[in-house]
Amino acid sequence: MATHRSDAIAEPRPTQRVKVGEVYPARTLWSDAWRRYCRHRLAMVGTVVLVILSLSTLVGPLVYPKAIDEIDFAVKLEGPSLAHPFGTDDLGQDLLARVLYGGRISMAVGLAAMLIAILLGLVIGALAGFFGGVLDSVLMRLTDLFLSLPQLPLLLLVVFLFRDRMREGFGPELGLFLLIVGVIGGLRWMQPARLVRASFLALKEKEFVEAARCVGVPSAWLIVRHILPNALSPVIVAATLGVGSAIVAESSISFLGLGFPPDMPTWGRLLSDAKDYLDLAPHWALFPGLMIFLAVISINYIGDGLRDALDPRKIL
Amino acid sequence: MHKYLLRRLLVIIPTLLGISVVLFSILALAPGDPFEELALNPNIPAEVRMNLRHQFGLDDPLPIRYLRWLTAMLHGDWGYSFVSRVNVQDLILQRLPTTLFVLGTAYVLALLIALPAGIISAVKPYSLFDQVATTLAFIGFSLPTFFTGLLFILLFSLHLDWLPFIYSTTIEVSGIAWVSEHLRQAAMPIAVLGLFEAASLTRFVRASMLDVIHQDFVTTARAKGLTERHTILVHVLRNGLIPVVTIVALQLPGIFTGAVITEQIFRVPGIGSLLITSIQSTDTPVVMAITFVYAILVVAFNLIADIVYGCLDPRIAYG
Description:
The complex is a heterodimer of chains A (316) and B (319). Chain A has 316 residues and is mostly helical.
């Protein structure tokens, strides 16, 4: 994803009237980035949509009175109505309640898996880039190996094989959550690792690093305090996009019926249950699918906006 | 070029070995015992079970079991399916052509859409076409294949009733009718996969073309009096495609993800749907073999990408 760059065409500089004697607040790197971000219209729309989505999944289940597992055959497979804004499924369960509750799990999986992937990527990339030599080649071969693993088949295989043991170990819900998050994160650290390594390779030769080394800064501190903050921009973009792809990954496993069980109705799981009733109850599939789409597209636009905002070559 | 090819081929061996180690360790670390069912059967004494375990070498240390498994795989002996009692390799070979047909056609479709769209977008950035194409591309790759698949079924099969939504292997017509039936049933899986790929490819083609289009040698080409068409298609495109090829290769493992899902939605009898049914029925040898086949496909396509890369950029092949 790293190759996408906004075009080099310069935006016209807004002419600013500078009044003599007036004190302007200092403009920091981050405030500049924020300013650029705000100018990316679709990224702002994406942010608003994502905030609404997250708030409704966080607060919604507390406010919305219907239970996710209240079975009522009298109203099964009904389309949207006042009593059930998103309609009902084949057991007459309220779909809005299930979509809200499931969204919580989907979003949590996305965030947690991304965190794992980024942490792994940061550690591996930083070690490889900073120390170089044998460590670098070993870690990079490992990265290449992981990159050529077929993702989904492996995800399915691991979830399927270790599901029962994790359930015994951590309880049915937490165990499955940890397993899915761990596997998704564990298969997605390669791109951040490469990005971090590339930045580290370039940065460690810079004068400020040399200066820090001269005054006796130990390696660990050099990595964390001096180089890492300068290598963060591509990682932030990768992390943002990573949340979206982790949500899709979770939805894919749940869609194939190997992820979360029906009592943990993530968006993918809802779609999976709905696919056999497409002719009778299309709303059942449409609402969770739309949620995944909205979440993913807003995350992608946010990532796009961040990429433009954090790119120092971009003229403000 | 030959040297480059040879070097590339040699890299495959450690990669495949590494993948096999990963796969084998996952399986070896997994809980569960293939003879679990026998343990539950009171008619089978424990010694028989132990003998069986011993006979199949399950008590040997892991490295030995790995080597034995590897040699068997290399000899083409991939084991028996627990469920259908057929040789795993026969089962896979029977299914593989369908998967490759759907994947390949989808990819050609993706290229047919993405290349022109990306090039036109890059030649006229911020034009109406560019805006529409970029927005569509964004929507396209934010729509997961499992959702587009369901939407397609809803629209084309249930609503309009144009296309069948179940892939059938036994079509009882022949001649042109057979071809058209095949195309009709393959249309939706191919479109779902192809459009998704086209969406992300379009973005990459546009971005990397834009990177090249402002470089000095392009200005030189124009200054020499080459036509715009020649400049774009020969000078810009060839250089712009190099990063695209890398991205395509890097994305391949992800494409198989989409392929498994589309096969499952449309019941395409390929190795993806076989993988899902085998996982559901705990058919470990088949699951293992299919995962490995996917890994081989990834490595093979990476190799093809590298060869294309070498053709596009002579500096790489001779360097």
